[in-house]
Design a protein that fits this description.
Layout (H helix, E strand, L loop, with lengths): L1 H4 L8 E3 L2 E3 L30 H33 L8 H11 L23 H5 L2 H7 L12 E5 L11 H19 L3 E5 L1 E2 L3 H16 L3 H4 L1 H26 L9 E2 L3 H16 L3 E11 L4 E3 L4 E6 L3 E3 L8 E3 L1 E9 L5 E6 L10 E4 L13 E4 L4 E7 L12 E4 L5 H10 L25 H14 L3 E6 L2 E6 L7 E10 L2 H12 L4 E3 L1 H13 L4 E2 L1 E2 L9 E6 L2 E2 L6 E3 L3 H12 L9 E5 L3 E2 L1 H5 L2 H4 L8 H6 L4 E5 L3 H16 L6 E5 L2 E2 L16 H6 L3 H9 L5 H14 L9 H12 L5 E2 L2 H25 L20
Parallel strand pairs: 3-4, 5-6, 14-16, 21-30, 29-30, 31-32
Antiparallel strand pairs: 1-2, 7-8, 7-20, 9-19, 10-11, 12-13, 12-15, 12-18, 14-17, 15-16, 20-22, 23-28, 24-25, 24-26, 24-27
Length: 799
């Protein structure tokens, strides 16, 4: 027990001739409530000095004592039932008795005052009785605030939870580890600060609110308008921010709540605008027409983080938002282009046949002798009444794969995009934002993309150009927010040139200025990502988020060309001054200029990237910024190493000249007992408060029904809950939950969380409780622990 809970220097325990000597000890920082932790004890039942006969007699006495205590409990319970009329129903047995025991405790401590300890020690470990009142008292006494008189400091910022919903067990792991670290450094005498906050999570939060509006009121955001819709999202934020704070406190997180931040409060919003303007002025933010991940369902660009990739080994039908029928994927379609002026055909193949409407070339390998005679020739496009060139490209084409000829759609495929750039091909966008084809698609204009797929197959077959259809393995990108199939689309967006900032972040790790813990495999991940970094798209076509502080300029009502027609400013007034400097030439006057702010918002990771400085009031030179930045350590999940951690290092170093932290501790991911990713639709997402307080199977189902899942998803999720939690989740308490998930984390691999292990740790707490209770009984009322460690016998201090 003591090896798990204390350090050798914090307690001294010596058992000699059935005597017991104990001293006060410091509890392990994983534990949050210390009801009886001022005195520790242990009783060695198998002391070597006892004879076998004495041991047998001692066990006999203990057995008789245990039996007598059990009979006494039965009598007390029976007497209580007669007074209250709460006799257990037949068949309830032990479970009903446990419930009666739990309801006995009543917290009589006024909120914020030190816990009243008059009640005698309870017969069983009861988490509510142990944990009640302490957190409010700690907060009221200011124990979570930094003591700036201390010479050493330890500062962390919380990875801000998204306000999309309540916390889950992954957050419980994160905050249990962080709280253990903070409490340890606080007990070690350092000036300790742990800053709380929440993230607005633009695309995720907008998505869940839109789903709620559709489910409860059958309306869309467009029915409300931007301002009214953002009020709905703000109400959602207020609801879940309150719940998140409550959960963090219930977990025992010793955060300084007076410094709580939100990534869209006024101070933080000013910091985001300032960061954008400074990076733009340094020519690191630019506007360009490039390929993005497009979600037709959300009608927005999304980041790589919001794209789930699934592998198909052959033909498979999937449900796609907006379609009445299932859509088939994993099929390779072979079709022919006729060479201009002849009957010769060039056969190509694709798994996205609908994109051939936007083909602007056919690529072959320059060394492929099969096509040498076609170099410089053109083929006829069957649907656009035009011809497209045959180009030579040794990077896109593999001679041994398929026919050795590849269709090229530069505006709708990343590899084709690069081929188009190399060969100066035309870029034709065939897709509207809502997933229908536009006027560039000719006869397919206005039709949904996958309806066009089937129409093109039928038309090619009728024209004699369809050659073969076969199953084919492929990777499919799916929007994690909507379930839609991602489309690569050419869009004019705002981008960040990360090349120089990435080099600084690389050097920081290589030089040891930022230490990744554990170094393997994270250092190689850091190096591979930053060593091959691409421009970062920061535009999002959303309403909820930080609106981009860029303004489109029009002269006499005519918009200036997109790539050059923008100005940036901290306010519209500043932007107008910048516009006058840039455009008031050659007779153009200020009154001829009109400005309109970009409707798009910034990628959430942009604002999250400045979290370690935004929480301290940057760009203002605040006292907190001077005292507590840079921070000491960042603790977070390994899955957001390059989505968040790298961007914080890059942006904070660029904007302040200082690295945001010197150490990064990356913990493993929490999965369910079967190794599956936590998902509401699987029914395996667990609220840590439900583990702490317990929850019935029926209430777990009720929680599902209150969310945004469809009826089909609810049915599937409830089946998962019945399988994993047939009797609900037992009350385990905060300490048992924290101790169990932290012990999981020490294993270094992803956590396959089994609730039964948390229950077993609660049972361990009960054993410890009973041992302490037994020890206190034998020590007597007048026992006082020794104030200093004393060695017995001839042991030396070194021993």
């Amino acid at each position: 027990i003591f090896r798990r809970l204390v350090t050798p220097r914090s307690c001294s325990l010596f058992l000699r001739n059935r005597s017991l000597r104990v001293t006060p000890f410091i509890p392990h920082p994983t534990f949050t409530s210390y009801r009886y932790c001022n005195t520790a004890f242990i009783n060695d039942m198998e002391n070597a000095d006892l004879t076998p006969e004495q041991k047998a007699e001692l066990r006999k006495q203990q057995k008789a004592q245990k039996k007598a205590e059990k009979e006494a409990r039965k009598k007390r319970a029976k007497a209580g039932n007669k007074q209250t009329g709460n006799a257990p129903a037949k068949g309830q047995g032990k479970r009903a008795k446990d419930i009666r025991l739990k309801t006995v405790f009543e917290n009589k401590t006024p909120k914020g005052e030190k816990k009243i300890m008059e009640e005698p020690m309870r017969e069983k470990y009861d988490p509510p009785a142990v944990e009640a009142a302490w957190y409010d008292w700690w907060s009221a006494k200011g124990y979570f605030k930094p003591d700036t008189t201390k010479p050493e400091k330890f500062v962390m910022v919380i990875p801000p939870p998204n306000v999309t919903g309540a916390l889950h067990m992954g957050h419980a792991l994160t905050n249990s580890i962080q709280d253990a670290l903070v409490r340890w450094h606080r007990m070690s005498g350092r000036c300790t600060l742990w800053v709380p906050g929440t993230d607005h999570a633009g695309i995720a939060t907008q998505s869940v609110v839109e789903k709620r509006l559709a489910k409860e009121r059958s309306i869309t955001r467009h029915d409300l308008g931007r301002e009214a819709f953002n009020k709905e999202v703000m109400n959602w934020k207020d609801e879940y921010r309150t719940r998140i704070v409550s959960q963090l406190k219930r977990i025992g997180s010793s955060l300084d709540w007076d410094r709580e931040a939100f990534t869209m409060d006024d101070n933080f919003s000013n910091a985001v605008v300032e960061a954008f303007v400074r990076l733009f002025d340094d020519n690191l933010i630019f506007r360009d027409n490039r390929l993005v991940n497009w979600s037709c369902a959300l009608q927005s660009t999304i980041s790589d983080l919001e794209v789930d990739h699934i592998e198909l080994t052959g033909k498979k039908k999937l449900k796609v938002p907006g379609y009445d029928r299932m859509v088939e994927f994993g099929e390779m379609i072979h079709f022919a282009y006729k060479v201009e002026g002849s009957d010769e055909e060039v056969i190509v193949a694709t798994t996205r046949i609908e994109t051939m409407v936007g083909d602007t070339g056919v690529a072959v390998h320059p060394k492929d002798e099969r096509y040498t005679h076609l170099h410089g020739k053109r083929v006829v496009h069957p649907f656009r009444n035009t011809t497209i060139p045959i180009v030579l490209d040794d990077q896109l084409v593999k001679m041994e794969f398929g026919t050795g000829a590849v269709k090229v759609t530069p505006a709708h495929d990343p590899n084709d995009y690069m081929c188009g750039k190399r060969n100066n091909l035309e870029f034709i966008n065939i897709l509207n934002d809502d997933g229908t084809f536009n006027e560039n698609a000719g006869k397919y204009n206005g039709q949904l993309r996958y309806n066009v797929r089937y129409a093109i197959i039928a038309d090619l077959e009728e024209m004699g150009l369809l050659k073969k259809r076969e199953g084919h393995s492929m990777m499919l990108g799916i929007c994690s927010r909507s379930g839609d199939i991602i489309e690569p689309v050419l869009k004019p967006q705002w981008w960040v040139n990360c090349e120089d900032m990435a080099k600084d972040a690389l050097d920081a790790v290589e030089n040891g200025d930022v230490q990744l813990i554990p170094p393997t495999p994270h250092q190689s991940t850091w190096k591979n990502y930053l060593g091959n970094i691409q421009p970062w798209c920061i535009s999002r076509q959303l309403w909820w988020g930080h609106r981009i502080p860029a303004y489109r300029v029009s002269i006499n009502g005519n918009e200036v060309e997109d790539s050059n027609g923008w100005v940036v400013g901290r306010s519209e007034e500043e932007a107008r001054k910048n516009a006058e400097k840039k455009f008031c030439v050659d007779g153009v006057t200020a009154d001829q200029l009109t400005l309109s702010q970009d409707e798009d918002v910034l990628d959430t990771w942009f604002s999250s990237g400045i979290f370690p400085i935004g929480v301290f009031g940057w760009p203002n030179e605040t006292e907190d910024l001077k005292k507590f930045y840079p921070t000491s350590l960042l603790e977070t999940g390994k899955d957001i190493l390059f989505f968040w951690v790298m961007r914080m290092v890059m942006m904070c170093k660029k904007l302040t000249g200082q690295l945001p932290f010197s150490q990064v501790f990356l913990h493993t991911m929490v999965r369910d007992a079967h190794g599956r990713k936590m998902s509401k639709s699987l029914g395996n997402v667990i609220d840590p408060v439900n583990v702490i307080e317990g929850v019935t199977l029926d209430n777990l189902g009720t929680i599902l029904e209150s969310g945004n899942l469809s009826a089909t998803e609810i049915k599937k999720a409830k089946a998962g809950q019945r399988q994993d939690f047939p009797k609900g989740i037992s009350e385990c308490g905060t300490d048992a939950m924290r101790f169990s998930i932290c012990s999981y984390s020490s294993q270094g691999t992803d956590i396959n969380l089994d609730i039964h292990k948390v229950v077993s740790v609660r049972n361990f707490c009960n054993k410890l409780w009973n041992a302490i209770r037994f020890g206190l009984t034998n020590l007597g009322d007048n026992y006082q622990p020794e104030s200093e460690i004393k060695l017995l016998g001839n042991e030396s201090p070194e021993e």
